[in-house]
């Protein structure tokens, strides 16, 4: 009985290698599988390029030209003159200083109060869900509505704050004309709006800390304050860095609260609480200098990058020292 031998492979093809047609049928699904993830993320990159990258690059291009709002189609090349004029402007440095002071006055109390509130909500309290929802109410409130209400509270003649001050024998304060008083008023709005938001972020970070650490600390005789210092704070360090970076970015971009506090882009009679956001708005939409406004926008962008890198470097150095 004759035994049939397997067919000889075609010329140029090794034994076991699939035929060209079969290889094509196998390679097509594999190629599609490799391309499919890029297709899924492509809409994000298209939208980012259209509404994020292009405006950023175009703003940098505009900042190198003289562009007026009335004749925005006419561009005269200036190079870096918009930036040099910016750094020679007293009002720019005033806005930069106001941005820093308002940022400190609003960020530091805001994060400290958020940390304390999150620590209280981390315990088993009655109505915890209600309190957590109530924390988000200021954040969900419109910035325009919140600022208008606070502007009435800080009114010079009929404001509730001055009424309380006079009722205890203190002199009323002009919360919109005085430099420090107006900056405290704007900082109070920012603190009220964002404390609850940061408190919920801290609360989520606290709930991710293993409970065994608290049990071990309690068995060693640590009080609740000691547990908070030596267990909660080290466990929340990445979350704290995140909130500091986000709050710093928000303080640098502060715009709505100081704009609506008195209703003008000058930031008060003597620009006492004009921030960089208001200064940019004033250059572009009050004085119609779009080129200078674009230069301010890029200075703000670079400032945010530097502050974010500085915070990251400080956090990394702290982590190395703790190891």
TrEMBL record:
Question: Where does the record place it?
Answer: Cell membrane
> According to the UniProt record, where is the region Disordered?
1-20
Family classification: Belongs to the binding-protein-dependent transport system permease family.
Tell me how this protein sits in the membrane.
Multi-pass membrane protein
Pfam families found in the cross-reference section: BPD_transp_1
InterPro entries of this UniProt entry?
A: ABC_transporter_permease, MetI-like, MetI-like_sf
Q: Mind telling me which residue stretches traverse the membrane in this protein?
A: 35-58, 100-121, 133-154, 235-255, 295-316
What the entry lists under SUPFAM superfamilies is as follows: MetI-like (SSF161098)
**Would you tell me the protein name for this molecule?**
Sugar ABC transporter permease
Tell me which domain of life the UniProt entry assigns to the organism this sequence originates from.
Bacteria
The organism named in the record is Kitasatospora arboriphila
């Amino acid at each position: 009985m004759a035994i049939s031998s397997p067919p000889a492979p075609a010329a140029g093809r090794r034994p076991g290698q699939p035929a060209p047609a079969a290889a094509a049928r196998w390679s097509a699904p594999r190629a599609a599988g490799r391309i499919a993830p890029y297709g899924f993320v492509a809409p994000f990159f298209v939208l980012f390029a259209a509404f994020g990258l292009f405006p950023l690059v175009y703003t940098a291009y505009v900042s190198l030209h003289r562009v007026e709002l009335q004749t925005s189609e006419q561009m005269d090349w200036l190079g870096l003159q918009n930036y040099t004029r910016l750094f020679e402007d007293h009002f720019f440095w005033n806005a930069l200083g106001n941005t820093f002071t308002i940022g400190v006055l609003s960020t530091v109390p805001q994060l400290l109060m958020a940390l304390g509130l999150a620590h209280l909500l981390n315990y088993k309290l009655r109505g915890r869900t209600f309190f957590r929802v109530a924390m988000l109410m200021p954040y969900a409130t419109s910035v325009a509505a919140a600022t208008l209400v606070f502007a009435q509270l800080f009114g010079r003649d009929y404001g509730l704050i001055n009424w309380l001050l006079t009722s205890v024998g203190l002199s009323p304060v002009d919360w919109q004309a005085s430099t420090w008083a107006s900056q405290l008023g704007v900082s109070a709005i920012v603190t009220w709006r964002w404390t609850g938001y940061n408190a919920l972020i801290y609360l989520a970070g606290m709930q991710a800390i293993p409970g065994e650490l608290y049990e071990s600390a309690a068995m060693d005789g640590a009080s609740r304050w000691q547990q908070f210092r030596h267990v909660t704070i080290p466990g929340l360090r990445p979350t704290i860095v995140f909130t500091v970076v986000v709050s710093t970015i928000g303080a640098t971009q502060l715009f709505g609260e100081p704009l609506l506090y008195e209703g003008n882009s000058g930031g008060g009679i003597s620009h006492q609480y004009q921030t960089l956001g208001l200064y940019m708005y004033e250059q572009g939409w009050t004085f119609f200098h779009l080129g200078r406004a674009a230069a301010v926008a890029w200075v703000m962008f670079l400032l945010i990058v530097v502050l974010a890198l500085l915070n990251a470097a400080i956090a990394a150095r702290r982590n190395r020292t703790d190891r």
